[in-house]
Write a structure and sequence with these properties.
This protein has about 220 residues and is α/β, with parallel strands linked by helices. It contains seven helices and seven strands; from the N terminus they run E-E-H-E-E-H-E-H-H-E-H-E-H-H. Strand 6, helix 5 and strand 7 form a beta-alpha-beta unit.
Amino acid sequence: MSEKKSEKKYMEYKIILIGNSAVGKTAFFKKITKGVFNERNISTIGVDKSTLYFKDIEVKSKDVEKKEEFNIILFDTAGQDRYRSLAKSYFNSTDIVMLIYDITNKQSFIDIEKWLDDIQDKLSDWKTGHYVIFLLGNKLDLANEDGDGNKREVTEEEAESICEEKSIYWGGECSCKTFTQEQLNEILLKSFKKYVENFGIKEDPKKATRLGDLKKKKGLC
């Protein structure tokens, strides 16, 4: 995986990170895109964006297994209420929503339902659209279950239960501090593979362009 600089066109999949302020969305974004972790990230204002390039990723769609080459466009959004309206336009043509909460902050988990309502309001054709929603618990490094420093307020069982209730996917728990860049990339790819499993591979943009040119020529004839 790398940040994409080339102008060459690849199939693109859009992933947007949402959740309460201070749950670690920006830490997740920076660890994946830059490979760095900062204890004191400044809250995102509006939206940050980065394009990541992947190749030779094995996927399975409709009983066909193949290796794919594609871009993931990753968006980090602000969690504060006053910025939510600014992020609405960034939901256009979203493929995957990654809803992040802090496992040491019960309120960030309680607010998942509010965020799901917000997603439904923002995504067009909610019931018929091609979307995958992943729930991800962050700050696993703070949840020391074996010692006096235990700060966990949300169990995995609670998270799995709400995923089943709301028909969304459980992405697991992670730590932007202790997980490697590669481990966090695997979480992105897990959501991507679920999208492909449900909806198939997107059409090759080069092929789509060629078909569009042919249609134009036929129209002129």
